[in-house]
Write a structure and sequence with these properties.
alpha+beta, 11 strands, 2 domains, six-stranded mixed sheet, elongated, five-stranded antiparallel sheet, 172 residues
Length: 172
């Protein structure tokens, strides 16, 4: 490094430096943008680390939720998750006619579910919203007024002092 470069490097940032850094930032944002959903996935991973939760494994996904060669996700209509402690099956429906279709795309949805352990507290997290319900004696539960978007379930079986169970995120 030359004496002039050394002097310049030790100086505080000025308006020209800030403009150059902004140009580099904009170039990277245009050429290599942050993947959509990355922030949510990072938050999820940090939450998992904090909770030391068990992660449920995705077992079954209806064809509407399968990702193809596209870079977008289709809404999930039916999905099953399993762990060593329980299984969870959920179906997404539009509240009006019981079918998920284009008319429900702008409104909310209903999540009908069944968990193998009766009395399990089921929490659905969609964005900043958290909806909680307790499964009945048959393991059934319903969550109404659920907004569209990526969601994950947090399951807490009754009397289970162990870690909560968290599902991977699915597009609802």
């Amino acid at each position: 490094m030359t004496p002039d470069e050394s002097t310049l490097a030790s100086e505080p940032l000025d308006a020209l430096d800030e403009q150059l850094l902004l140009t580099v930032r904009n170039m990277h944002a245009r050429l290599d943008p942050v993947p959509s959903g990355l922030t949510e996935r990072i938050k999820f991973e940090l939450t998992l680390a904090a909770l030391h939760a068990e992660i449920a494994e995705l077992q079954q996904l209806s064809p509407a939720g399968v990702r193809g060669d596209e870079t977008t996700y289709a809404p999930t209509q039916s999905v099953t998750f399993t762990t060593s402690r329980l299984s969870l099956m959920v179906t997404v429906t539009a509240p009006s006619d019981g079918l998920l279709d284009e008319s429900a795309a702008q409104g909310t949805i209903t999540v009908d579910g069944w968990v193998t352990v009766a009395g399990t507290v089921v929490e659905l997290r969609v964005g900043d919203l958290s909806l909680t319900v307790t499964a009945d004696e048959h393991g059934r539960f319903v969550l109404e007024g659920v907004p569209h978007g990526p969601g994950r379930f947090v399951l807490r079986p009754p009397g289970d002092g162990e870690r909560p169970i968290i599902t991977p995120s699915v597009e609802l």
